[in-house]
Design a protein that fits this description.
The chain has 260 residues and is α/β, with parallel strands linked by helices. It has a domain of 179 residues: Hexapeptide repeat proteins (UDP N-Acetylglucosamine Acyltransferase, domain 1, 3 Solenoid), CATH 2.160.10. A hairpin with a 4-residue loop joins strand 21 and strand 22. It is globular, with a radius of gyration of 20 Å.
Length: 260
């Protein structure tokens, strides 16, 4: 991966890190490292057992703000989950009664705060897909249209092909297939299939334009060399946190001012 691509993706990750209205990270470098180790142990002890499968290299930001329900949620390698206190990530594979819902997520997928996935039948997400803040995928109505006491209704599988980007607060409804590389605009409601290499937006989502069928830079490229990537992020932390001290961190909690 070229230095230009590496820098681009690091900048994008930083945007996601700091979008939660925090001016800066006031922790000293050593404290952040300790926090990261605690976070990893928390994921291993409390989060990973809730997945049917969780691949290697996954990264979790604030994992205690995730809710996983059901026994058939599988995630591939190098996924990124970013939860928040006011925007839980929620995934449900409905496996009650006659239903055996499954959520299968590929490699390199990005899950932002507030994302919800609910499967009574099947949600399949291929590699390098990205989900904006508050986006939602469901393969069911969760009640019958005419019989409102009927749980789930009539589910239909949802499929997202490689490198799909779902915008903020967009909703993907049951029975939809979204083709490779396509983009769904913010707050769109997708009720019909979306072809590859296209942009759809609106309620209901409608065709906006085609994408050039050139070479896309995807999250797979971002993780092309995970060891080097981890090293780059560590150097970035050392640089951005170098001036922080334990006292300045405590002060930022108790006596916060515009320098924090």
């Amino acid at each position: 991966m070229s230095p230009e691509i590496s820098r681009y993706f690091i900048i994008q990750e930083l945007i996601y890190r700091w979008r939660r209205k925090i001016r800066k990270d006031n922790r000293p470098y050593w404290l952040k490292k300790i926090t990261s180790k605690i976070n990893t142990k928390y994921v291993t002890r409390f989060v990973k057992p809730q997945f049917k499968h969780l691949g290697k290299g996954s990264v979790f930001f604030k994992p205690k703000y995730m809710k996983l329900f059901g026994s058939s949620i599988s995630v591939g390698n190098f996924a990124t989950f970013i939860a928040a206190p006011d925007d839980y990530i929620q995934m449900t594979s409905w496996d009650a009664g006659e239903w055996a819902g499954k959520i299968n997520i590929g490699d390199y997928v990005l899950i932002s705060p507030g994302v919800r996935m609910m499967a009574a039948l099947s949600i399949s997400i291929d590699d390098s897909c990205m989900f904006g803040h508050g986006s939602c995928i469901t393969d069911a109505d969760w009640h019958g249209i005419y019989d409102r006491t009927k749980v789930v209704g009539e589910p239909k599988p949802v499929v997202l092909e490689k490198n799909v980007w779902v915008g903020e607060d967009a909703m993907i409804c049951k029975g939809v297939t979204i083709g490779e590389n396509s983009i769904i605009g913010a707050r769109s409601v997708v009720t019909k299939d979306v072809p590859p290499n296209s942009i759809y937006a609106g309620n209901p989502a409608a065709f906006i334009r085609n994408l050039d069928e050139g070479e896309f830079i995807t999250r797979k490229d971002f993780f092309n060399d995970p060891v080097k990537l981890a090293h780059d992020f560590d150097l970035l932390d050392r640089h951005t946190l170098a001036a922080n001290s334990l006292w300045s961190w405590i002060k930022s909690i108790i006596w916060r001012d515009n320098t924090h």
